[in-house]
Amino acid sequence: MGIWQKEIITVFLLLLAITVVGVMTKLFLPLLFLLMLAIIMRQVVQITRFEKWISTGGRGSAPKMSGIWEEIYFHIYRLKKNDKRRKKKLSKMINQFRQSTEALPDAAVVLGIHDEIDWANKAARDVFGLKASDKGQRIPNLIRFPEFIQYLKVGDYKECVILPSPVDHRMTLQVRIVPYGAGLRLLLAQDVTQLKKMERMRKDFVANVSHELRTPLTVLKGYLETLQDLDDEQSPLLTKSFQQMQGQTERMQHLVDDLLLLTRLETQQKKSLCIDVPALLSQICKEGDALENAERRIQLTLESTGHIMGEEQELRSAFTNLLGNALKYSPGDSVVKVRWYQTKTAIILTVEDQGEGIEKSDIPKITERFYRVETKRLKKVNGTGLGLAIVKHVLMRHDGDLIITSEIGKGSSFSCRFPTARICN
Ligand code: ADP
After folding, report:
1. Which CATH class is domain 196-267?
2. Cα 16 to averaged position of ligand 1 atoms, centre (Å)
3. Which protein residue has the closest C-alpha to ligand 1 atom 7?
4. How far apart are CA 246 and CA 220, in angstroms?
5. What CATH code is assigned to 273-424?
6. What CA–CA distance (Å, rounded) separates 119 from 43?
7. Atom number in ligand 1 closest to CA 414
8. Which CATH class is domain 104-191?
9. Hey, which of 373, 374, 392 would you mutate to test ligand 1's pocket, going by the most ligand atoms within 8 Å of its Cβ?
10. Span 171-206, pLDDT tens digits
């Protein structure tokens, strides 16, 4: 029998008893009133006890009850028990998460909408020198490097920023921000001191080796030229060997020159002046035509008179490399178009050839160092595989980018795009 049915039957039986006694004593109405009063009083007492118990958070054992109230207490008790179990599980999970993030070797700081610190792990406290009392402080007030403040302000978090640790200036940190949720951000910092040291060593090594190779190469080249002059061409083997040796020393010299240029691009401070690009291009194209033995393959179109802020020697190297490639990788009688023009957002140099073209899959790779596409060309084309790496670096130093489009058998187009903010005339 259900609990409600039991309650109703009890009330019904009491009513019946009251009716019988009431009819016998002729006191039905007063007795009915008394019964109603007793039932209401009982409920009021139960509610008061319940209210007292629940107001203390339902702590301690529930008061002993019967009927429908026993049922109510039972359900609440069960809900409380489930709630307690869930809370225990959740706090265990939070503890585990806290412990694992505390043990992380990388620094992690949770930032609020106003750049204030919500939480930081042990590594963050160590490398940034944060204290527990810094919670709620704005992070730019604590990490005051201009690069970092700019990075935080701009809000473009695709890249990361390299900073020295505010606690130990010998430590280099790679800092990146990961946005999540509504306006919240996670700041992550990694110690890259060793990595940066190794990178520096690699650059120094390449620079030193390239520099040291210059003198022996010059000596070799000098002796080779002398020997070639002395060669009476009596021995075809000797003549061929001299030619090959000269070809290889020239190749090596180009390699050394390109490597030194790349190292300079990676290590030297940028020096910007307002460069007359149309004049520079006219000169480069003239030199290109001169190299092509009066073939006059280059068509230069100067649609813009725009000068840009930059480093002349670097821009000359980049443009010469692009023009040199267009001439090298296209037939001797085809046209190479060079165009300098401006759009709403950029000022652009495009070098377009009608040459062999580049496979789609090779396009992202050709700007890597030493990458050369292996094709079955009729004529062997000399090169170091460093030209486009130089172009990419130069453009990076000028806030520009390189766009390559190509179609096999039809030709390629290389565009150097500089932001209009660089225009200076
Ligand atoms: P390289 O000294 O070999 O020319 P680059 O870095 O300048 O080195 O170019 C890398 C490779 O990209 C080249 O070996 C060539 O295969 C390809 N390449 C560059 N420019 C062109 C072009 N205009 N047309 C076709 N292929 C090109």
Report:
1. mainly alpha
2. 108
3. 387
4. 9
5. 3.30.565.10
6. 51
7. 23
8. alpha beta
9. 373
10. 999 999 999 888 889 999 999 999 999 999 999 999
